Amino acid sequence: MGYSRAIVKGDWCFVSGVTGYDYSTMTIPDDPAEQARNCFRTIFRVLDEAGFAPEDIVRVQYTVIDAGLVDQIIPALGEAFGEIRPAATMIVAGLIKPEMKIEIEVTAFRG
Known about the structure:
By secondary structure, the protein is an alpha+beta fold. About 25% of the residues lie in helices and about 30% in strands. The chain has a five-stranded mixed β-sheet with strand order 1-2-5-3-4, with helices on one face.
């Protein structure tokens, strides 16, 4: 499937949906909070490579496979964002592989 992990257009960076894999080992933890932490590790690395910082994130979309997982992932979201307060949407939907419990997509602006 052809896609880009991220696209930079001027002062904008659009990061594709990231799932909870540790891409260095291609493993994925069962714990949804650890999956969320892996998502943010990947997102923050990609943003850094593109010349953006976590503080530049203005929009985030979370997709979780079950609303019952939200309470488990909230601590990981707070750890990642701290004082950053992007506009956010959370959707409950299926993901393409059964081991995936969360996918996170962000948009950053540095203007």
